[in-house]
Structure formats: C-alpha cells, structure tokens
Amino acid sequence: MHYVIIIFLWLSILLYLVLGGADFGAGIIELFTPQPHRGRTRKAAYQAIGPIWEANHMWLVIAVVILFVGFPAIYSTMSIYLHIPLVVMLLGITARGTAFVFRNYDAVVDNMQKIYDRIFLYSSFVTPLFLGIIAGSAISGRIDPSATDFLHAYVYSWLNWFSVAIGLFTVSLCSFLASIYLIGEAANPVDAKEFIYKARVWNIVTVGCGAVVFIAAEAEHIPLVKWVFGNTIGLIAVILATLSLILLWVLVARGKTIFPRILAGFQATMILLAVTYVHFPNFIVLKTGNNLSLFRHQAPAASMNTLGWALIIGSVFIIPALFYLYYSFQKDKHREQH
Predict the structure, then answer these.
(1) Banded model confidence at residue 338, pLDDT cuts 50, 70, 90
(2) Domain membership of residue 240 as a residue range
(3) Which residue ranges traverse the bilayer (predicted)?
(4) CA distances (Å), 307 to each of 2, 50, 62, 71, 105, in order?
C-alpha cells in the first residue's frame, strides 16, 4: 500500500504540472502577447481551459492531502519553512480563479474588466513561479531546521538563485505546454501559425532557463549535473525528452495537433523523472545533511492503509468522471464549430 500512495503522489504532481501548468501557461502567453493580438489569444485559451480549469487543481489537492495524511513530517516541514512561497502560490491560485470567473462571466462589463484581466495575467505568472521555487527549495538543501533567526529559517530557505531559476524554468515550461496545446484550439490557420511561433519562442526560452538552472546549481554547489546525468534512468529520460522534442516539431510541421500535445506532456514527464529518480525515496533535502524520506517519515500503518484504499476507491469514481468531462466539452465545442 505504501508504494500505491507514493505512485498516486508522483502522478498527482505530474498531472498538476502538465494539466495545471498548461492552464497557467495560457495566461502567461496572453500576458506576453502584444495588446492588439490579446483578444484572439484570450478566446483560444478560454475555449481550451474554460471548461476544466477548476478540475486541474484537484491534482494539487490530492498531493497536499497525501502529504498531510501519509507523510506529516514532510508536510509540516514544508508548511513551516516554506510558508511564505506557499502562501504566495495559494493566493495566486485563488486570485487567478476569481479573476477568471469575473472576467468571463461577470454580468456587468465595465472598467473592472481591466482589473480582472491584470489579476488573471499576473497571477498566471506568479503562481507557477512560486510552485517552481517551492520544488527547487525542497531539493536545494537550503532548508535549515536549526536556524535561529527569521531570515535563515524562513527566507533563505527559498530565496536563492537555484530555487528562483527552477521557478523561471517552471514558468517557461508551462508556457511551452500551453502553446503546444493551443495550436489545436486555433480558430483559423493564421491563429494556428501564431501559436506555433509562440511555441517555438517558449521552447527556446525553456531551454535557456534550463541552462540557467544548471548554472545556478553549480554556483551554489548543488550537484544537479550528477543528479540528472549520473544515473542510467536520468540519462535515458533526458535522451527520450530530447528525441520526443524533435519528433514533436516534425509533427507540428505536418499540421498535427493531438500527438504534439502527448509528446509535450511526455517531455514534462521525463524531466520530472530525471530530477526525482535520484532522490527517491527522499522528498526534502535539509541543510543539516539529513533527508526527509517517503519511507522513514511515513504515518502509522493504519493511516497509510486507510489513505491507500481511499485513493484507490476514489480514483474509480473520479477518473471516469474526468474523462467524461473532457469528452463532453470537446463534443460541445465541435458541435459549435459545425
């Protein structure tokens, strides 16, 4: 049952990165789109994320519940020493969701729409930025439980070049995912070419941010190169991610839309695998040299069994409902187009 819970945890993080990340990325793309062209970008993004944006956060909720119930020591450590970026991220999620609803469904159209737009766009950037910062902080070895002052305990644990670089990489990856997904949502060939161009730009930015992550890691003496390339699984994951990227652009050039989406999600999966495999079963690397492990810092067996069965039974109901949600809205969209 322990491994079942760990698999659910890893998959929930992955699905939030891929699906929720593309959701955030749609707002980031709109943020960096020139004002005269934002209307078309906004329309395509709304058609893509409008029906399911709220469901994407389910994966984050599942991950939080698993940590809270199954690994309380890990949950409490993150909640204490990373409470500042966690609060910013959660405020970003709340503000973004609120602004999305009001800017698309508000009965009164007035100057407040501009405020809703700004909140939505800037929170779309801030939220994945701090999500990446939190992820980077967990493996950076900067969390110091023995710290005796506020800055070292609650600020320097996440405010460092490596964690910020991971945050910027997360932002760029979300934007790349969204660009690829939105190609198939374009209303005409002109808009499709525009999203292809955006995908190319964000692909370059993502590679550049990835390079910055490795530079920041070397500057802060974090053995990221060894973590990623020093084992067979990590090396294979990087190779597969690179090959799938080449195949993705070949398919995009041929006018395909479905398979590039799958390949973009596959790349995100390989990136997450390359980074997390070497740390397993450790979840948090502490400055003291100790690690918080998914094996050594678990809840009592009774709690783990109850959690495992709850996840299994819950997935039987939730997963088919999610597939039906995607199917029904895609069906409605095709009906509108015809």
Answers:
(1) very low
(2) 2-337
(3) 6-32, 53-74, 80-99, 119-139, 159-183, 195-217, 229-252, 264-286, 306-327
(4) 9, 31, 11, 11, 37
Place of tokens 């596959």: 266
Angle separating helix axes 83-105 and 53-70, nearest 10 degrees: 160
CA 50 – CA 107 distance, rounded (Å): 17
- Nearest one of 31, 26, 13 to 181, comparing CA atoms: 26
> Which among 264, 244, 120 is positioned nearest to 179, based on CA atoms?
264
Q: Residue type for 129, please?
A: L
3-state DSSP assignment of residue 283: strand
- Residue 274, pLDDT score: 93
Nearest CA among 218, 216, 215, 234 for reference residue 272: 234
The segment with the largest mean pLDDT, out of 111-120, 205-214, 313-322, is 205-214
Report the run of H or E that residue 190 belongs to, with start and end: helix 189-219
Helices (H), 141-188: 150-154, 161-183
Cα 258 to chain centroid, rounded: 20
The angle that helices 301-337 and 2-15 make with each other, rounded to 10 degrees, is 30
Q: Which residues pair with 126 in a beta bridge?
A: none
Query: Hey, what amino acid is at 268?
Result: A
- Count of structural domains within the chain: 1
How far apart CA 60 and CA 173 sit, in angstroms, is 18
pTM of this prediction?
0.92
**Quick one: which of 116, 249, 127, 125 has its CA closest to 175?**
125
Structure tokens at 86: 């966690």
